[in-house]
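Final paragraph of the annual report: two paired records, presented back to back.
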Amino acid sequence: MNESILADLLAQVSAGTLPPDQALERLRTLPFAESGQVLADTHRMIRQGFPEAVYAEGKTLAQTTDALTALVAAHGCALATRVSIEVASSLSQRFPTGSYDDISRLYCIGRMNDSFQSSPVAVVCAGTSDLPVAEEAAQTLEFAGARVNRITDVGVAGLHRLLARLDDLRSASVVIAIAGMEGAMPSVLGGLVAAPVIAVPTSVGYGANLNGIAALLGMLNSCASGLTVVNIDNGFGAAVAALRILKLRSTE
């Protein structure tokens, strides 16, 4: 259930076209829905503006399926992250309208009804090795109805590549900057654009990168004021943070 459905429900009760006891019955499962082994948080859409997503890594196929079933029933759409090819193959039999992307490892069933009038979100990645995280962010944004401008392979080892896209970067509503190795690119971007910059360290890099910790610490220690940093490889979290910014701007 989302805000528009809830508002319509209350309007029907107010107009006398829906008896209160029937409305109550529809609302009984509002906070959460039990489905097999999971309790799906069906109220999250109303509280936060984005539905619960299913983190599939570490879950059994049954747990993932149960969660998606409950969320589709509540919202008409659902998103699962970190889905393996094998699990996706099984999910496609249960949810034939769903789609899977083997780069982002996202499994999407439908799309949210939201749309944003703001400029696109720029999803920028330093190298093509960062694409799985970048696509997780980009496709999560698209699932929510946001527009995305993908800017790929513009790491600071060849700074001219990044500067060549400066017009696109400065016209973005939010910039999600994704980099591994030493994680320098978000600091450079933070000094070039006025839009909020959300930095995502990735686990891409040689041994001293420490599976993304070096990039994470580099971004946390950025001298570009106001840079926001999410966890290592968390493209999904960066996308949801960007959506919160977009929603706040849409109410101004």
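The closing record of the year follows.
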Amino acid sequence: MIEILLIDDHHLVREGLCLLLDSHPRLSIVTELGSAEKALEYLEENKKPELILTDIVMDRMDGISFVRIVKKIYPEIKVAILSMIEDKAKVTEAFVAGADGYLSKGTDYDELLFGVLQIAKGHKYVTASLSLRFLEDYLDHCPVTVDPAELLQRYDISERELEVLKMISEGYTNAEIANKVFLSKRTVEGHRQHLMEKTNTRNTADLVRFGFQKKLLQ
């Protein structure tokens, strides 16, 4: 069981996130607090959680300052930002401070849970929509000419798998993709898994990053 400390200064937001995260059999919210100061007091006096999820904008101490302090005192604890702010400068600032991940409150249920699990495992993770913004900037400055047909052959990616990859990059869920291409959700999940295996990527964000880097996605 992955024990999580949740920090957000909005009580209703904390309640909703607790219900969401506690619905997963591998996740458990050990406590939820309304400020970074209370969280630091909690960490001094209680068993340390495996993961801390914190908002950025809070009274007095902000989330990024909190990340910096926690990583200095308790480097073994995974700490991720969970915020409505989707600003590339803030994402960069959070990782410079030591954050292990940056999750958007606007992301869907599946990706939020996936991201939390990846961070708990020790992987860095950024919400896919934010990853795409960084990739778009990179591609704007590093244009590359490629042969898509050659790439599909090299990685053994079928036209159907490419179609699924494009819809994944557009933010569609497995169920939504299944409805659009008239396949079962399980078949779409299989395509997603095969794509990750063929491209040697660890998760959806890595897969989408691969697609843009290789110019399979525009």
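The chain has eleven helices and six strands. This concludes the annual technical report; the extension proposal builds directly on these records.
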